[in-house]
Specification:
The chain is mainly alpha-helical and 162 residues long. 60% of the residues lie in helices and 12% in strands. The longest helix is centred in the middle third of the chain and has 30 residues.
């Protein structure tokens, strides 16, 4: 059952990416999806059916524009810092703990942080994240730093992955 669900998800993704129902495209999608499930099926999440739960899908639909908004804001912030002659930066690495328990949730959080210009997830050890930040704020207050870098993403990701 797990392999069938994986195949259906991959094939649906293929159809969305190619946006074509021509015979050659459909056959290629079936072959690629089958091959992917056969070679890497054990790398997928264990309970794939949970990924298509309506509440999770709703929050993921909310999350995508939310993430894009913060990426836009961070782009403008980094552009300001680059174009400002004084180059107001205070780079550093911050460490904080996440409340997310699943590996998939932590992966999404790490990628969301890295996709936001000015921050880069350097490492994850257990529940601890190490993030390089272009302008470290809130010296000596790791909770405020974690809230500014990850809190805005973590709240929604908890609803999707927990």
């Amino acid at each position: 059952m797990k392999a069938i669900i994986q195949f259906l998800i991959l094939f649906a993704l293929w159809l969305l990416l190619t946006w074509s129902l021509q015979v050659a495209d459909v056959v290629a999608g079936v072959l690629v999806s089958l091959l992917t499930v056969a070679l890497m099926g054990n790398m997928f999440i264990d309970k794939a059916i949970r990924a298509i739960h309506p509440v999770r899908v709703f929050w993921m639909i909310i999350y995508v524009p939310y993430l894009l908004w913060y990426i836009l804001i961070a782009n403008m912030d980094v552009a300001y810092r680059v174009l400002n002659p004084a180059m107001p930066i205070r780079p550093g690495i911050i460490k904080f703990k996440t409340g997310l328990k699943t590996e998939m949730g932590k992966t999404f959080l790490a990628n969301s942080i890295t996709l936001t210009p000015g921050t880069l997830t350097v490492d994850i050890i257990g529940d601890e994240f190490f993030v390089h930040w272009i302008n470290v704020k809130h010296d000596g207050n790791p909770k405020a730093q974690a809230e500014e870098v990850a809190g805005k993403f973590e709240r929604i990701l908890r609803r999707i992955f927990e």
